[in-house]
Amino acid sequence: MVAEQAAEVLVASNRGPVAYTLAEDGSLTAKRGGGGLVSGLSAIGSGTDALWVCAALGDGDREAVHRAAGELDPADSGGRRVRMLDIDPETFAAAYNGIANSVLWFVHHMLYQTPLEPAFDAEFRAQWAAYERYNEAFAEALASAAAEGAAVLVQDYHLCLVPGMLRDRRPDLRIGHFSHTPWAPVDYFRLLPDDIAAQLLRGILGADRAAFLTRRWARAFSVSCAEVLTGSTVEPGGPSDVSAVVHGGRTTRLGVHGLGADADFLLERSHRPDVEERLAGLREQVGRSDGEARKVIVRVDRTELSKNIVRGLQAYRRLLDDHPEWHGRVVHLAFAYPSRQDLAVYRDYTAEVRRVADGINADFGTKGWQPVVLHVKDDFARSLAAYRLADVALVNPIRDGMNLVAKEVPVVSDEGCALVLSREAGAYEELGEAATVVNPYDVTGTARALHRALSMPRGERAERTKRLAAAATALPPERWFLDQLAALREG
C-alpha cells in the first residue's frame, strides 16, 4: 500500500542524516550528519519529494521515533524528510554486529584468520535470521512510502537483501543498490555458506542497477554471480554501465561511481578558527629541530582492522631503524579514533595500536623529540589541522572501498604532500599514478616508501599534489549521487 505522502526518491541506509541524544531531563537534541550521502541528497533539489529511511541507532533515536509517531521533524535534518525505523534492539544488534560488521565486513575486507575463523554454526544462523528481519523492516517501510515508479537507492552491506525483498513487494519501482565496501574475490566470498552467498547475490540482483566505487569491485561481484548462481551470465552493459548480470529472467546492470572529496567544503572548513587553534597546538607538539620545522607524516583513521594502522606504525619504526638521519627531524601524527569498541577484537586492536606507538616513543624518543604523536579522541577540526601540516600522508589499508582521507589530504595540505598509498585502496584506481604505491603487508617496502616520500624534492611534491587534488575532486558527492540517480532512471 502506497502512503498518502509518497516519495519520488528514497534513500535507505543503516545510519541516517540525523542522530538524537536523550538528556536526563527527557529533552532531545538533534545532531545533523555529514558525508557524501547527506551532501548528495541535498543535490536533488527542493522540487523533488525525497525521503530518507534509516535505523534508530540508540535510545535517543528510539525516543525521537516514539514521539514523532511517523516521520521526524524535517528541521532536525536540514529540511529532509526522514523516517527512522525502531527495530527491536536484539534484532538490530544481531544483524548489525553479528552479521554486517562481524561477517560481511570481514569477508569483503578479507580479515579472517582462516585457521580459526569463520565457523558458521547455529549462532550464526540465528544472527542471519535477524539480518533477514532487519532487511525486511526496511523493505516494508520503503514499499509503503514510495510513489508509483519511484527511484530507491539502497546503501551498503547492511541492506544487501532489501532490493530483492522490495522487488517482490513493489515491482513498479526503480531500485538501485550501492556498495561502499570492496567486493571480495569469489574464492574468498565462498567462505560463506553456499545458501547464504547465493541469497546475498540474489538480494542485490533484485535491483535494476548495482553500483560500486571501482571497476575492480564491480568485476569481483560479477564473477561471484557467474560462479555462485547457477544459470547466471555476465553481459555487456549500457552506456553508463560496465556490465550486466542476467539471472532468473532479470537483468541487473552494474555501474561504477567513484566518490570524491568536497573541495569547497574542505578548504573553507579547514581555515576556520577552531582549526587554526588546533594547528597551532599540533605545531607545538611537532616542534622544530635545528631551527627548522620537522617533517610530518600524517594518518587519520578509525581503529578499524582493515585500516592497517599497526603495520603503518611498524613501517615507521623500520624507517627510524634504517635511516637514523631522520631521528629528531620527523614526527608521525597518528590519529586513530576508536571504532566498534563493543566488539572484543576491535578493543584488542586499539590496545595494540597504543602499545606499538608507545614502544616507538620509548625506544627512539628524546627529551626534545616525540617520534609518534598519537591521538585517539575523534576531533574533525584537529584532523583538518593535521591535513594542513602533512608533508606525507600515509594511507595503507589492507582493503578499502575507496578511502576519502587519501583524497582529502592533498586538497587541504598547506605546502603540498606526498601520498603513500596502498594498492588495495579503491582510491588507488584514481590516485595511483601520482602516489607512492605500497603493498600493505610489506612493512619494509612501506618504510622505503616513507623515506622516498620524505626525501621528495619540493618541485616534484608540488606537481604530484596538484595531480592528486585534481583527481580527488573530479567526482564531488553531489555528482556522485546525481549520476547514480540518472543512470538508474535511464534504464
Short description:
The protein is α/β, with parallel strands linked by helices. It is built from 18 helices and 19 strands.
What does this structure look like?
The chain is an alpha/beta fold. The protein is 44% helix and 20% strand. A hairpin with a 2-residue loop joins strand 10 and strand 11. The mean pLDDT is 93.
Rounded to the nearest angstrom, the distance between the terminal CA atoms is 25 Å
Largest sheet: 9 strands, mixed
Work out the number of β strands.
19
Structural class: alpha/beta
Strand order within the widest beta sheet = 5-4-1-6-7-8-11-10-9
Strand content: 15-25%
In DSSP terms, counting alpha (H) and pi (I) runs of 4 or more, how many helices? 18
Mean pLDDT comes to 93
Rg over alpha carbons: 23 Å
Percentage of residues assigned to helices: 40-55%
Query: Based on CA inertia axes, which overall geometry fits?
Result: globular
Q: Which quaternary structure do these chains form?
A: single chain
Uncertain segments: none
